[in-house]
Design goal:
Chain lengths: ~190, ~190
């Protein structure tokens, strides 16, 4: 069974065959570390589901510095919704931080699913609400939390990413300098 | 016609009577400037639609400093979805920055609406996607934009708020100090 089947049956309570039924809206790809799946200026055509590996979405500022918007390890969905749903050119990049096995869901995937399993529609809505909750918490965290609080929340959200990516990339996600992150980690060890 | 009727017929393409049909899920209230509609620790029960006036949602940090998460002038919806949809204690406050006329929509409002007008369900979904787009852009802005870029985007999103609230409150929304905001505004005048 794929992770996606498990994810859908867990979160949307649809039977495992649902993935097979919707497979026309689905593409299975294998991408090498460093591959870009989306570049700024393009229209994002897919939601990416990570079967194995690690993707991230980031923005580049005017000085060419990367700012990580989201990490997507196994069982995460990642996409630029502004671009996918409103047909706008994306401001973001999505790339593979590790060799990654990805399922590409086109924009019709969830519509098709909720047509086949009408009782899943509310659950799909709940997934959106969960996503909104995460984004709202992230904004609140960026505005009001100390570097240490941000880091501790990061560890809760992404328990193993710290071991999988360079420190500067986590610092970029947290909106702090790598030096601050090192300091925070040292202080936590002392506590 | 209320702003809400206009908003719904515009965004969801439902007839203007829809508000009357759903009025059991709706409460009309008048709140004085400074009134708190939600406090941290409570469960958020409503989505607030602003007919006239101005609401805001904010977080308090451990030092008692306020951080503005969102402003809601006329025609905006504001709510803590984490709390409303997942029955969690809110981490946020919602209060009235001006004397405000508010429609309180309970959590069943949009469900009822989409039952009465099934063709509005996709449009309600699109509203959620728009909200997600805004949140995503806000995160990207907080991580990667300069104070000036943030301020210019703020003016696009909220053309008249600058005239309606004290400067420190806008600075708090932007995640910069009031001094930085003053500097940014002075530099823009010179340009």
């Amino acid at each position: 069974m794929t992770h996606l089947q498990h994810y859908l049956s867990e979160n949307l309570e649809v039977p495992k065959e649902s993935v097979t039924l919707c497979q026309e809206s689905l593409k299975h790809i294998q991408v090498a570390k460093g591959t870009q799946l989306l570049q700024a200026g393009e229209i994002c055509q897919y939601t990416y589901f990570v079967e194995k590996g690690l993707l991230r979405m980031f923005a580049l500022d005017r000085n060419g510095k990367e700012h990580v918007i989201q990490f997507a390890p196994e069982n995460w969905l990642i996409s630029d919704r502004s671009s996918l749903y409103f047909n706008e050119k994306s401001k973001f990049y999505i790339d593979a931080v590790e060799d990654t096995e990805v399922l590409m869901l086109n924009s019709g995937f969830f519509t098709e699913l909720s047509k086949l399993f009408p009782e899943s529609a509310d659950k799909i809505d709940l997934l959106l609400q969960k996503h909104i909750r995460n984004l709202q918490n992230r904004i609140s965290s960026l505005l009001s939390e100390t570097a240490e609080e941000r880091y501790l929340n990061f560890l809760k959200m992404y328990p193993d990413i710290m071991q999988r990516v360079p420190l500067w990339m986590v610092a970029s996600y947290l909106g702090i300098t790598p030096e601050s992150l090192s300091r925070v980690r040292k202080n936590l060890v002392k506590k």
